Amino acid sequence: MTAIDPIATWSSFPASPAAPTTALPALELDGYLTGVIVTPQAAPIRPSAWIGGLWRDDDPIFADEAQINAALGAVALRYNALIRDIDRSLERLEAERIVDYRPLFVTGDQKPSHDAVRIWARGFWRAMALAPATWSKLVEDERTRIIVEPFVGFFDVGGVDPHEIPDDIEDLLDAEAALIPRMILILRKLARIREAAGRPAPPVRRNKIGRNDPCPCGSGKKYKRCCARA
Question: What pLDDT, on a 0 to 100 scale, did the predictor assign at position 1?
């Protein structure tokens, strides 16, 4: 059986005359799903919260149910593949101090184009908007601000004074793009730590004590003649 390529499926989906014209481009979709996965908070962003962000409007119109299933199926496959690839790369980073994760904007050994990174980052920014308080705290904390900084240069936030742009901006952006894969893994690690901390502790299992069993207090008496009578 031929494996389904979710990126190819999604890329062909908006090209259909009957498809919603506001579906995110594949590169932006990848940044969006990555942002959803690595948002570092105790409760992961639920699909019900992020599925609507796959389109630029709130009410996409599909040709039929098959088209809905094909589109959402491709997204689910890509989402799960990203989790698998990010977690695998995180394990290697922890074990060998090697960053081998490659976001979709990276092709081969060449430096990614800044335009490609910006499109990807547009999706990542879209995911950040789903949890503004979480990301604001990261930026405000000096210990975690460094994790977010490589992404910022590719965000289209507007209002930048041309005179404030440094002469070596291209070199700076190259350096930031090279750091993004590592920061994705660090964010995923932080997300997993916070998810574990927010998870309720498992209930303590207690074996039922029979009335004729030795009392757990260590008196040597039967339970029914000791603590059970208290």
Answer: 47
User: DSSP assignment of 66-88, as one string?
Assistant: HHHHHHHHHHHHHHHHHHHHHHH
pLDDT along the chain (230 residues), means of 10: 70 62 86 97 92 76 74 90 96 96 90 94 96 95 94 77 69 94 97 86 60 65 63
Tell me how far apart the 2 most distant CA atoms of the chain are, in Å: 87
> Is the Cβ–Cβ distance between 220 and 70 less than 8 Å?
no
Rounded Cα distance between 77 and 55, Å, is 18
Place of tokens 């149910």: 65
3-state secondary structure of 124: helix
In angstroms and rounded to an integer, the radius of gyration of the C-alpha atoms of the chain is 25
Place of tokens 């920061």: 183
Terminal Cα distance for the chain, rounded = 69
